[in-house]
Amino acid sequence: MGTIRVLTEGELRGVVGLGEAELAAVEEVYPLISAGVGSMPPIMRVEVPESNGEIDVKSAYLPGHSGIAVKVSTGFFDNPAKGLPSLGGLMMVFDSGSGVPQSALFDNGYLTDLRTALAGAVAARHLSNAAASKAAVLGAGVQARLQIEALTLVRPIERVTVWARRADRAEALASELSPRLGFRVETADTPQMAAAGADILVTTTPSTEPLVDETMLHPGLHVTAVGSDAEGKQEIAVGAVAVADGFFCDSIAQSARLGELRAAVTAGFDRRAVIELGSVIAGAAPGRLRETAITICDLTGTGAQDTAIASLAVDRSRRARAGIEIET
Amino acid sequence: MGTIRVLTEGELRGVVGLGEAELAAVEEVYPLISAGVGSMPPIMRVEVPESNGEIDVKSAYLPGHSGIAVKVSTGFFDNPAKGLPSLGGLMMVFDSGSGVPQSALFDNGYLTDLRTALAGAVAARHLSNAAASKAAVLGAGVQARLQIEALTLVRPIERVTVWARRADRAEALASELSPRLGFRVETADTPQMAAAGADILVTTTPSTEPLVDETMLHPGLHVTAVGSDAEGKQEIAVGAVAVADGFFCDSIAQSARLGELRAAVTAGFDRRAVIELGSVIAGAAPGRLRETAITICDLTGTGAQDTAIASLAVDRSRRARAGIEIET
Q1: Which residues of chain B neighbour A72 with C-beta distances below 8 Å?
Q2: Domain ranges in chain A?
Q3: Under an 8 A CB cutoff, do B92 and A96 touch?
Q4: Reported ipTM
Q5: Which superfamily does CATH assign the domain made up of B128-301 to?
Q6: Which of A50, A303, B261, B312 has a Cα-to-Cα distance from A283 of 20 to 30 A?
């Protein structure tokens, strides 16, 4: 009936990465989400209690995009004992004009990691101070590394501090990042010490207990939280949300269901005070009001970003003739 | 990280079809659905209004099944003018123990067609009279043909009548079916004439106006409706639902949202009177109460059936070494 281009993680790493075009592709979807343009259904979740696992499906149709991604993310938390990673997934991309399958992206979650890091950069570009040069990150996984690297696309970062629950992992990330960034990356003994003096703080953990409380917020700080993506996870204390000068997120509906807004709203925080990042980018709502303001942005991750990065990956793969084509 | 087996429609047609094992695989999931075993989220739908299209995603986890299917169905209704089929899709299958992707089934909707036809046979096996030999079908598409063929697996069918809005298509289907079935298949000028004298009537159309009303129901008739799968579609008149001796369906939640129950419930029909097919199969609820009873079964199609047929297809493909393996 047609051909489907199949790409592996390695091939996808060859066509998309932390670049300006990828950043622009992710950035431009936020105003569409916030304006209600296109169609983005709620996340579909299949629970697999017998294996301590879950499968999440995200998707979105965005006018002007050649593809529609259907992204499947897997989280099976007993996998490490079997020698397998906990997280994985893939994306399927369909032609937005005909529904015909275009591509299968066997990315093991790479595109999700990428678009999440780029979302952090988008948040920093629109909410942190332009001169922000000191960044701190909580967590030492793939996303911690990518968030820091993505920040360098939009801000003149020249100092980075890493904290992680496991100090050895924080050290390893610092050692890995230092040569890439061209300056010394330090580690901190506590989240408080990491946040002290930072212009931008990014939280990337699966924590179920808040790591950032109101005592850690100082004038001029911008915080981006990317870890919470499910009921029960929380990185930012309700008190911190309450005292910030502005609370932002990618999707109010999602943040209230499975992000940092959930606990805050339960505690009485008025969700009408929340501004979506897309409204800021579109100029329809204010972002940072002054240099000393404290801003927080919660990113839960949307199907729209998946469609954005997948459409770009498919277009580039086609031009590069990357991957293999299967006649269906 | 592993290998993903990729199969095309042609290869899938080589490993699964209208057989006893496939019928058993589909049949055994209904009691699980009705008992609430496993996890089957609501259908995810992405609307694509600019292209008169929609993408539906179904999935289910069923204990005891090696795979979890995530099935994407596309319906783009302006496609025929472009020389493309309106309907399409594919399935991705994940290991139910680890979430690792097992297989990509580029089936163009074949497995959906197959499991839908087998579902019709399951309904007939549990709800029609055992001696039912006369079948009628409304519609003349792929599903009309498959429903009739699947019925022959469970009932001693020896007469078939076809009605379709387009008489030429009904004639073509009758001509195609006659040699396969070994007896003459006739066509009818109206749905009424098709239903008259039938023991089993199967409706397979995308009609938005009821085709079967109470005047067409006669003692002993069993009706299976498989066409309605979206708000706005309806094959069975509310009056027919009201006078039948038993109304059954695959999933009450789905039938009430996008199947034949929707209009009936709106008109005041008590959904507590509805029995799920799985409860009948499990012996937990009565099916046909007497030979002269009139029964109706609405099948909207479930992610559980997709997981059932996909798991079987993946197991057989692996043993047959069908398709290609991609290192991810």
Answers
A1: 70, 92, 94
A2: 3-111+304-327, 128-301
A3: no
A4: 0.93
A5: NAD(P)-binding Rossmann-like Domain (3.40.50.720)
A6: A303
